[in-house]
Amino acid sequence: MVSSESRWEKRQRIRTHLLDLVEETATGRPLPGERQLCETLEVSRPTLRSVMDDLVRDGLLIRAHGRGVFVAEDKVAQRLGPAAGPGPSLGVGGVDGAWTSRTVEFTAMAAGPRIGRRLGTAPADRILRIARLRLVDGDPMCVETLHVPLALVPGLTAHDLETDSFYRLLGSRYGILLTRASQLIEPTVVDEAEAELLGVPVHTPALLFERAAREADGRVVEFTRSVYRGDRYRILTELSLAPEPDSGRVLGGSWSAASRVPGADTLVLDPYWNDNG
Predict the structure, then answer these.
(1) How far separated are the first and last CA of the chain, in Å rounded?
(2) What are phi and psi of 123, to 5 degrees?
(3) Are the beta carbons of 186 and 226 closer than 8 angstroms?
(4) Is residue 128 very low, low, confident or very high in pLDDT (cuts 50, 70, 90)?
(5) Among residues 53, 55, 37, which one has the least CA distance to residue 45?
(6) pLDDT-based confidence at residue 31 (cuts at 50, 70, 90)
(7) Of 65, 68, 73, which is closest to residue 25 (Cα–Cα)?
(8) Pick from 34, 137, 160, 233: CA 20 to 30 A from residue 241's CA?
(9) Which residue from 76, 202, 195, 95 is spatially nearest to 143, judged by alpha carbons?
(10) What is the pLDDT of residues 181-235, one digit of tens each?
């Protein structure tokens, strides 16, 4: 051990060691005890616990009071990629696990000024507000609140959205084909209602997705606000780059995940990227 090791270096050394243990240890299995880790790393217990706390907040470790620290379940990965062609089946394979839904709210109401502005409707126009708890392999993952003009989806029921994809229903039942979506992604924390549904503490870090999906003529069909658990969800993008440089220059390449809307601060994504049921 180098005696002049800085606090930063010490924490990075501990973090690297713990991450290696996470990589080598099966999900749900415990890490070695704090005393053993402190002896191995030659660090104090408060320093070790501080780094462990960081990994707990990152969703990599779980503390069980009186039992120890365990390796958390793998995060669900959302792969963002370009659309391969038209059709509501696109993007269904882009999320790990088996997705199911439970409808927790299904309300007809006036749009109001905020939602009306996002849907391009008058505040007094009637819309459906539909809240769904999305689950992956039975585990709560996301609270999704969808807004759609009521006139576009006559006869739609809460049960429909638990047994079929919303986008598939739009196409097959209502003849509505969505061709473009603008989506904003940013960090947030869950409120009390979201925490209760997701089974996490209030103010747990989360990812907020806000999406407006449009038909070919530009009409907005749905505005959706989705809150995903930050401890179980991550986004994976793949870049398409030029195969060879030319005199130090990259010949070409593009982001395969998204492209910017000219003059806007939103991303254009495949509108079917996460409509799995």
Answers:
(1) 54
(2) -55, -30
(3) no
(4) very high
(5) 37
(6) very high
(7) 73
(8) 233
(9) 195
(10) 888 888 888 888 899 999 988 888 888 888 999 999 999 999 999 999 887 777 7
Distance in angstroms (rounded) separating the CA atoms of residues 44 and 56: 18
For residue 191, the tally of other CB atoms under 10 A from its CB is 13
3-state secondary structure of 8: helix
Structure tokens at 85: 């062609």
Measure the CA–CA gap between 170 and 162, rounded to whole angstroms: 14
CB 175 within 8 A of CB 119: no
The answer to whether residues 269 and 258 touch, using CB atoms and an 8 Å cutoff, is: yes
Q: Residues 6 or more apart from 57 whose CB is under 8 A from it?
A: 205
Determine the angle formed by the axes of helices 45-57 and 7-24, rounding to 10 degrees.
Answer: 60
CB burial readout 4-22, b (16+ within 10 A) else e: eeeeeebbebbeebbeebe
Amino acid letter for position 264:
A
Burial class from Cβ neighbours inside 10 Å (0-12, 13-18, 19+) for residue 113 reads: exposed
- Helix-strand-coil percent breakdown of the chain, rounded to 5? 25, 35, 35
Asked whether 102 and 124 are in contact (CB, 8 A), the reply is no
Of the candidates 206, 189, 181, the one whose C-alpha atom is nearest the C-alpha of residue 274 is 181
- Burial of 174 (C-beta count, 10 Å sphere; 0-12/13-18/19+): middle
Q: Write the DSSP symbol of residue 111.
A: -
Measured distance CA(101)–CA(18) in Å, rounded: 35
Q: Which residues, 6 or more positions from 11, have their beta carbon under 8 angstroms from its beta carbon?
A: 47, 50, 51
Q: What is the distance between the alpha carbons of residues 112 and 103, in angstroms, rounded to a whole number?
A: 22
Number of Cβ atoms within 10 Å of the Cβ of 97: 15
